[in-house]
Design a protein that fits this description.
Blueprint lengths: L2 H33 L5 H12 L3 E2 L2 E5 L5 E10 L8 E12 L1 H5 L5 E7 L2 E6 L23 E17 L5 E19 H5 L6 E14 L2 E13 L2 E11 L2 E10 L5 E13 H5 L12 E12 L9 E13 L7 H8 L12 E12 L2 E11 L2 E10 L6 E9 L5 H9 L3 E3 L2 E10 L4 E4 L9
Parallel strand pairs: 5-7, 6-7
Antiparallel strand pairs: 1-3, 2-3, 3-4, 4-5, 4-6, 7-8, 8-9, 9-10, 10-11, 11-12, 12-13, 13-14, 14-15, 15-16, 16-17, 17-18, 18-19, 19-21, 20-21, 21-22
Length: 451
């Protein structure tokens, strides 16, 4: 055997011996813990409490050695700090955490992956701004990273809840809730999440939920990409089933500042209007039909009993084949219908074939610059506003037209009543006042003169 071959063989043996020694050291240091990891539970609890600044509960710890070194933690929970009502930030029936063996040799706790089974994540914001999951002490840790990044996190059958405390520091209503959540996140930066001053990217991946509630609105079978970044949660390429139709779009929730805020850009298709309006007690039963539309809504999430009241934004909606039942018994609209000899509107003036309108929501008022209503025999073109502050006051005006040609005597009496005749068809200026519950249709309305 040549000298070179002997040297190569000697190096191989030295490498093998070094690995064997390292493995032996690992066994000596950690085998007592891994064989009975529950003995390590008090030390793990103390470590997590030091790093998070929160009270931690662990029911039991066991270990698996394939694949890799895994700790199974039962009945894991982290409590909200004393500033908040008694509650938990995180609870999980079981957590499976795969340890980084090389980090263990260096005396560090680093996780390659984590699986959370039936977790409940409860996020609460204080009126002064901080969230219950934050730990201000992390900002003063001189750059030490208590957890680092977890390369991959899986959540199975979870629940996510978000709410604000009231100014009295009592618990406020839940403004966001997701049930039966499954999620896959990469590069989850726990340190960045609990550090209130962090500007890092804290994880990205996918999220699916059986049901989602945002304020009064609900959706099912949500699927979305998700990104956590510097006190922002971004839901992108989201799809969901909602009120008999479907919705697509994006939602950005900003968690910094005294009041969190949100921005959404949503498109809805084939939504059942009667089901949608049931989510808003003052509007329930006011309209039927199928809705398509696009909405861009922004607002703050206030520390109040109605956290999502301050919405504002714009959009466009189309509604097909519906009714406005509150107009059915309106005497003035019935008189207008009597001029029409043809079509279902003669007997049911509350029905329509198609409604198209723009929307602007601001200062508790919903405005439309252009409303086009194609009824069955009666068409309306107008504009106006409705108050959303509680009075439900209506103020709409425009032109109502009879789409079928009328006879001589009908036209004569209609013109005497204020109508206009063009191409054998009648039109009337109108005004709708009153309230959502009691609209008043006035065909004797005289529009203001324009110079």
């Amino acid at each position: 055997m040549s000298n070179q071959s002997k040297t190569t063989s000697r190096k191989r043996w030295l490498i093998f011996a070094a690995v064997a020694c390292a493995f032996l050291v690992l066994l000596i240091l950690f085998l007592p813990v891994l064989l009975n990891p529950d003995r390590f539970r008090p030390r793990l609890i103390a470590y997590l409490e030091e790093k998070t600044g929160k009270k931690v509960e662990i029911g039991h710890i066991s270990a698996r050695f394939f694949p890799g070194v895994n700790l199974e933690i039962d009945n894991f929970a982290v409590k909200s700090p004393p500033l908040y009502p008694p509650s938990y930030i995180v609870q999980a029936a079981r957590i499976n955490a795969q340890l980084d063996v090389s980090a263990l040799l260096r005396g560090q706790l680093v996780l390659n992956s984590m699986v959370l089974d039936h977790p409940v994540i409860n996020l609460i914001s204080d009126p002064d701004g901080p969230w219950n999951f934050e730990n201000p002490g992390v900002a003063d840790s001189n750059g030490k990273v208590p957890f680092g990044e977890i390369l991959h996190v899986t959540m199975n059958h979870g629940t996510i809840i978000a709410s604000n405390l009231l100014p009295s520091d009592k618990a406020g209503p839940i403004f966001f809730q997701a049930e039966d959540v499954s999620s896959e996140l990469d590069n989850l930066n726990v340190d960045g999440i609990i550090n209130p001053n962090s500007t890092t990217n804290d994880g990205q991946g996918t999220l699916a939920a059986g049901e989602v509630k945002f304020g009064s609105l609900t959706g099912t079978n949500l699927k979305s990409k998700i990104r956590l970044q510097a006190r922002h949660v971004f839901f992108t390429e989201a799809t969901a089933e909602t009120y008999g139709g479907n919705a697509t779009g994006e939602l950005d929730i900003k968690l910094s500042g005294k009041n969190s805020s949100f921005t959404t850009d949503a498109h809805v298709k084939n939504v059942e209007v009667s089901s949608l309006l049931k989510a808003f007690p003052s509007a329930s039963g006011k309209m039927t039909g199928r809705l398509d539309g696009a909405l861009q809504i922004v607002g703050e999430i206030a520390h109040s009993l109605h956290p999502l009241e301050g919405w504002h934004g714009t959009g466009h909606l189309d509604v097909r084949h519906g009714q406005v039942p509150s107009l059915k018994l309106n005497a003035n609209l019935m008189k207008l219908a009597h001029y029409n000899d043809l079509g279902p509107a003669k007997n049911d003036p509350s029905s329509f074939n198609f409604v198209s309108t723009d929307l602007e929501l601001s200062h508790d008022q919903l405005s439309s610059k252009r409303i086009d209503i194609d009824g069955y025999g009666v068409d309306l073109d107008g504009a106006g506003t409705v108050s959303l502050s509680g009075s439900d006051q209506l103020n709409y005006h425009g032109i109502a037209a009879i789409t079928s040609k009328q006879g001589f005597f009908t036209n004569l009496f209609a013109r005497m009543a204020g109508g206009t005749l063009k191409d054998g068809k009648l039109s009337f200026p109108f005004h709708i006042g009153g309230t959502i519950d009691n609209p008043i249709f006035d065909k004797s309305y005289k529009p203001p003169r324009t110079e």
